[in-house]
Amino acid sequence: MRAFTYERAKTPEEAAAAVANMPGAKFLAGGTNLLDLMKLEVETPTHLVDIQDIGLDRIEESGDGGVRIGAFVSNTALASDKRIRRDYGVLSRAIVAGASGQLRNKATTAGNLIQRTRCSYFYDTNMACNKRQPGSGCAALEGFSRQLAVIGTSDACIATYPGDMAIAMRVLDATVQTVKADGNVRSIPIADFHRLPGDTPHIDNVLERGELITHVTLPRPVGGRHFYHKVRDRASYAFALVSVAGIIQGDKSIKVAFGGVAPKPWRVESAEAAIADDRAAAMAKIFTGARPTPENAFKITLADRALAAVMAEARS
Amino acid sequence: MAEILHFTPSRREVMAAGAASAAVTSFPANAQRVAGSAKPPSKMPVSIEINGQPVQLNLDTRTTLLDALREHAKLNGTKKGCDHGQCGACTVIVNGKRINSCLSLAVQHEGDKVTTIEGIGTPENLHPMQAAFIKFDGYQCGYCTPGQICSAIAVLDEIKAGVPSHVQGDITGRAKASNMEMRERMSGNICRCGAYSNIAEAMADVAGRRT
């Protein structure tokens, strides 16, 4: 691991300024993903700004009937919260479908959102990776790609967004709240937060340098039945091949987002109205433009079957 | 025979030598890369309460909680398996919650209360979970066992506190300390000997006694 200096910020603005003003600085929350990558020298920060003391560790009611989740709230605390379990069940279910008990105790809401891909070529510093080293190429294109993305990819990168929590947040229409070094705040709809790779796959999301996530807000509860169906190679503690976050109402209207298939949580709202009556047509629309490899083309069929399983469960 | 015994190093010495050679073989690439900008490592004082005892350490900022416990506080009970959060051998309890000590910097734990296997029980006064692991044969080689026991104790606390799990039918309800729950909640602790079913039995036994 490369050497670095360490400080604890006292306020969100101070943390944002500390990272903005020092090249090579990064925020440190739980550290479960960042430290792993630092050990492999995939991430090489020269300074860490720890955000554990800046008061972002609460889940509160927001003014408009929704919920405001602090950036430093642990995955366990969020999944265990009574309001979240009652009103936003898909979020609790998604979180407990990911990682292990130990990791969920340490991993945070903001860290989970901006966790980096688990593409094995991103992790392997002997291999070309445009996400790790811009311009170096993509070993995954000709490599083993079973786990990788089938849609939203580019010629520069076919990495998958690995998380579960954000898939549920996408179907819940969450908003990411941030603060910058100058104290300015902004609200970013989750749909616009993660980026597609294009020819700049090293930029995972729209955060600017030194811009700190302070909260994630959820709108007023929408009711309905909540599902998170994750298909993976082991029954527990494995990344998704495909996952489905779904909210199904009594009138059969459905909202659905997919994980494990794209560089970001994948949701096509315009296809949702057709799902109840013609799932095949809706899925064709959701996966229009997919460019799977021979190794991961099965994910498109699997996504359809996972959605069918959720809809069958909703009928029972 | 006596002469051979004379030259037989202790298990600790063998392991220390192994660690040293592993360090040597894994460092040259890095050493070359940073040689030009040779700065001294950044060090910081860290105070952690370990098993009820205040401990003051002066550490390289890169030191993980795991290495602080093993190499600096000299508590070798906590084990280093994968060092990447995948195996759970390094599991300790920090402020009442189990974490992977390998994926946490020691400096993140200023003022925290850490419980390691050495603080769980002693050979003379076993924790009920330790006694149950012995009774139900919850281990073979024993390398993952300190992490398994720390995790198992915390799992029963998590069930009691209402932390939900992936195998729970009703996410708004309370989980029972069932075999399926134990298996799901312990999935972050790998046992290559395969003592899983006996570990789940040991946990069920302790859970039954608690309620």
Q: What does this protein look like?
A:
The complex is a heterodimer of chains A (316) and B (211). With 316 residues, chain A is an alpha+beta fold. In chain A, 28% of the residues lie in helices and 18% in strands. Chain A contains twelve helices and eleven strands. A five-stranded antiparallel beta sheet of chain A has the order 4-5-8-6-7. The longest helix of chain A is centred in the C-terminal third of the chain and has 18 residues, at 298-315. The N and C termini of chain A lie far apart (52 Å). With 211 residues, chain B is of the alpha+beta class. In chain B, strand 3 (91-94) and strand 4 (97-100) form a beta hairpin. Chain B is globular. At the A-B interface, helix 2, helix 3, helix 5 and helix 6 of A face strand 4, helix 7 and helix 8 of B.
Write the layout of secondary structure elements.
The complex is a heterodimer of chains A (316) and B (211).
Chain A (H helix, E strand, L loop, with lengths): L4 E4 L3 H9 L4 E4 L5 H6 L7 E4 L8 E3 L5 E4 L4 H6 L1 H6 L1 H8 L4 H6 L2 H5 L6 H4 L41 H7 L3 E5 L5 E5 H4 L18 E7 L6 E7 L10 E7 L5 E6 L19 H8 L11 H18 L1
Parallel strand pairs in A: 1-3, 2-3
Antiparallel strand pairs in A: 4-5, 5-8, 6-7, 6-8, 9-10, 10-11
Helix pairs in contact in A: 5-9
Chain B lengths: L1 H6 L3 H16 L1 H7 L8 E8 L2 E8 L4 H8 L18 E4 L2 E4 L12 E3 L1 H4 L7 H8 L9 H17 L17 H7 L10 H15 L1
Parallel strand pairs in B: 1-5
Antiparallel strand pairs in B: 1-2, 3-4, 3-5
Helix pairs in contact in B: 6-9
